[in-house]
């Protein structure tokens, strides 16, 4: 049960509040607080945009069926601030031959490795596997063919901070088979989250080998 006497007391307290005799001062204070809030929000958005995540729209079919044309995704940059790009990572990067253009591909070869593409097979040799191992890729259709662009054998040694990248849609992709290695400095971020289309919404899974 509500105490009517207490209600009356509270009402009296509210009615006794004083109105500032200088509303202009209050308005200026409000604008100042609003400006401060705006600066903080802008600073956070700037830091988030340039140092944490960045939006991209996939243009083309080189990463089908895993990434489709006009797919809207976010790439995150935090992982590579503390670690190295890994095999299987799908990365967004500045095209080495024209840095004003962004590409999206999958990392296949790592620094220090030897890559060989022949007869629809990718063989990778490194310090752990000096004789090489055939890469098994469960993220591309079984009927896709991975060959050198010119149809012959491709062999490539990767130096420090060099990566070998391929599109998942091997027969319709401009990648390291055509234009060479990807320098680490060109990598902008790792594909992290798809926003649109909604049926593809979600965090991207890392490839397993």
Can you tell me the CATH superfamily of the largest domain?
Umud Fragment, subunit A
Number of helices: 4
Distance between the termini: 68 Å
Mean pLDDT across all amino acids: 84
Class inferred from helices and paired strands? alpha+beta
> What profile does the largest beta sheet have?
8 strands, antiparallel
Residue share in β-strands: 25-35%
Order of helices and strands: HHEEHEEEEEEEHEEE
Query: Which value, in Å, is the CA radius of gyration?
Result: 28 Å
Q: What is the general shape?
A: elongated
Helical proportion, percent range: 10-25%
**Assigned CATH class of the largest domain:** Mainly Beta
- As for the number of domains, it is 2
Unreliable runs, pLDDT <50, ≥5 residues?
1-17
């Amino acid at each position: 049960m509500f105490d009517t006497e207490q209600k009356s007391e509270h009402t009296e307290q509210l009615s006794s509040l004083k109105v500032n005799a200088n509303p202009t001062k209050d308005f200026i204070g409000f604008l100042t607080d609003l400006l401060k809030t705006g600066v903080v929000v802008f600073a956070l958005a700037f830091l988030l945009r340039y140092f944490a995540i960045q939006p991209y729209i996939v243009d083309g079919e080189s990463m089908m069926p895993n990434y489709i044309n006009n797919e809207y995704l976010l790439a995150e940059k935090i992982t590579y601030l503390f670690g190295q790009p890994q095999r299987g990572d799908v990365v967004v990067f500045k095209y080495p031959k024209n840095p004003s253009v962004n590409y999206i591909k999958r990392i296949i070869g790592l620094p220090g490795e030897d890559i060989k593409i022949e007869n629809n097979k990718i063989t990778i040799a490194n310090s752990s596997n000096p004789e090489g191992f055939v890469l098994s890729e469960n993220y591309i259709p079984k009927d896709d063919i991975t060959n050198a662009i010119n149809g012959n054998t491709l062999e490539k040694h990767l130096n420090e901070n060099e990566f070998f990248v391929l599109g998942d849609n091997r027969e319709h992709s401009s990648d390291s088979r055509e234009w060479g290695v990807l320098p680490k400095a060109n990598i902008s971020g790792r594909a992290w989250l798809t926003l649109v289309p909604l049926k593809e919404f979600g965090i991207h899974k890392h490839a397993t080998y």
